[in-house]
Every structure is written in C-alpha cells, then in structure tokens.
Amino acid sequence: LPWTGAKLVDTVALATAAAQSATFSFVEGLAYYLTVRASDMAGLTTQVVSDRIVVDSTAPTWLLAPLLDHRAAPGAPRSASVWSNTASIRSAWVVSDKQSGVREVRALAQPAGQAAPSLDAMQLLEGGLAAQGGVWAPNPPLSDGASYQLFVCAVNRVGLSSCAPPLSFTVDTTPPVCSAPSDLLASGKPAG
C-alpha cells in the first residue's frame, strides 16, 4: 500500500486468536495469509491480502540417493561403481520438499579423496534434472581410469539445502580385450 501522506495510528500484530495468547507459533507446512488493512481519518478502508505463505524450516529430503543410470547402454553389464563416458553422466535420484518445493539441484564429480565441495563450487543442473536426475555434462570432463566422488545437493525455495551421500565411481572407457576364436584354435588351448 502506498503510505504517502499517511501516519501509522495503530498496529495489530496477529489475528484475534493469537492476540489472546502470549506467544504464537507457526506450524510447518501450513498455509498462512497476511492481511493488511488501512483506514484513513474519513473512515475509508483499504485491505490487501498476501499470496499464500508456507512455513518451511526443513531442507529437501532424499528419497533415492544418486546412482549411475546405465539405460544409455542396453545389454552392457551394469555396475554401481563404474562409468564408461568422460563427457556426460547419466544419474538418477529422487529428492522432494513438501513445503516449498525443490528450487535447484547442484552436482560435482570431483577426484576421490578431496573434501566435499561448497554449494557455490557445484554445477547448477538445468532443466528437469532437479527432481529425478538425468544426463548432464560434468565440468571439467572426467578422465579415463580416474576415481571420482559424485556430490549432489538440493536447495528448496527458501534456500535450505541438503546433500545426498557422495557416490564413488571409476571411469573406464576401454573395452575388454578378446582373442579371436581362430587364435584360440591355432594355439591348441581349450576355450573357456
């Protein structure tokens, strides 16, 4: 409300029920509305009601911690601790925030053995990656043969964050070496 030329005459902190008690506690997850009513000396009144306000004092909850998602390589052996691509990671997770919702997810794959990164040092994941993961390009790219820890953190709409337990994995882009069947037959060694 514009307060130009007006002076504050009286204030009421909370609704009547709250005014009857000495303290008032907001309940987590409930919706509240703030009403502002102004009256002038002529008795004219204006009232404005805020948008819905939800009390949220809890960080996002991890329902499924991050894991490597091998759907991109059908038929390939799957391992929770080995990844075969240096340019992108396909990962899955489920994170939720019932009060205010998940605003963003940040992730970082860094060499194993390093301290956990700060939230600001992590890569902001764009698009639909927030709630359930997907394909993303780590920056910097991964190195073949190196071991990493994947850190993933979620931030809700009021700025509270929580991080999933880190996921350890190794990058292996080298296919196995196989002898041709003719080489095995020529050597006289049984296959198997």
List keywords for this structure.
single chain; 192 residues; mainly beta; 6-stranded mixed β-sheet; 3-stranded antiparallel β-sheet; 3 helices
Please describe what this structure looks like.
This protein has helices spanning 16-19, 129-132, 181-187, and strands at residues 31-32, 35-39, 45-49, 53-54, 61-68, 82-83, 89-96, 102-111, 123-124, 133-136, 147-156, 161-163, 167-171. It is mostly beta strands and 192 residues long. The longest helix has 7 residues, at 181-187. It is rod-shaped. The termini are far apart. Mean pLDDT is 79; it is low at 9-20.
Q: Topology of this structure?
A:
Layout: H1 16-19, E1 31-32, E2 35-39, E3 45-49, E4 53-54, E5 61-68, E6 82-83, E7 89-96, E8 102-111, E9 123-124, H2 129-132, E10 133-136, E11 147-156, E12 161-163, E13 167-171, H3 181-187
Parallel strand pairs: 6-13
Antiparallel strand pairs: 1-4, 2-3, 5-7, 7-10, 8-9, 8-11, 11-12, 11-13
**Biggest beta sheet attributes:** 6 strands, mixed
Q: What is the rounded Rg?
A: 28 Å
**CA-CA gap between termini:** 83 Å
Which oligomerization state do the chains in this entry correspond to?
Answer: single chain
Give the amount of beta strand, in percent: 25-35%
Mean pLDDT: 79
Overall form: rod-shaped
Write down how many β-strands occur, each being a DSSP E stretch of 2 or more residues.
13
| Helix content estimate | under 10%
Q: Which sequence of SSEs, written as H and E, runs from N to C?
A: HEEEEEEEEEHEEEEH
Query: Number of helical runs?
Result: 3
- Strand-pairing-aware structural class: mainly beta
Unreliable parts: 9-20
